[in-house]
Amino acid sequence: MTLIRWQPWQEIDVLRRQFDELFDELTPISRGISRGAVAKPNGVAWTPAIEIKSTDTDITLRVELPGIEAKNLDVQVSHDTVSIAGEYKSETRTEDQQIFRSEFRYGSFQRVISLPTPVQNDQVNAEFKDGILTLTMPKVEAERPKVVKVNLG
């Protein structure tokens, strides 16, 4: 059995984050733009899809960024958030090309992701492969479950 120190404010913070995520899904600010997105003048914004996994020691964040080059990304990690900004650049066109339909979204984006537990932001491992950014972030030692054997006599 694992003994974990009760931290009521941490539980309230987790609840606040869950409510934020719920309201982000139910009530976008404007035209499908979530709270983590930066709106463009024409009202169209793009935010990459994410996946967050947790183990006893790490938080892993995966971000879908198809068609974006690593040099066009800015990733910053604090102890409880990850900020990802970048630009999806359009291909250069010649005068003889005519686009009949395009559903691609080009331009800048930014997304700030709240992490479920604090991490050691100076020990982040990043991999960018096949349009997927994977960040593996070790949890802060105090947040890791610790098992202590108790002698009964």
Can you describe what's shown?
- With 153 residues, the protein is of the alpha+beta class.
- It has a single domain (8-90, 104-143), classed as Immunoglobulin-like (Sandwich), CATH 2.60.40.790.
- The chain has 1 helix and 7 strands, in the order H-E-E-E-E-E-E-E.
- The protein has one helix at 8-26, and strands at residues 50-54, 58-64, 73-77, 81-88, 107-114, 125-129, 132-138.
- Strands 1-2-7-6 form a 4-stranded antiparallel beta sheet, with no helix packed on it. Strands 3-4-5 form a 3-stranded antiparallel beta sheet, with no helix packed on it.
- The chain is elongated, with a radius of gyration of 20 Å.
- The two termini are 18 Å apart.
- 14% of the residues are buried.
* Distance linking N and C termini: 18 Å
CATH class: Mainly Beta
Residue fraction in strands: 25-35%
Strand order, biggest sheet? 1-2-7-6
Q: State the total count of DSSP E strands.
A: 7
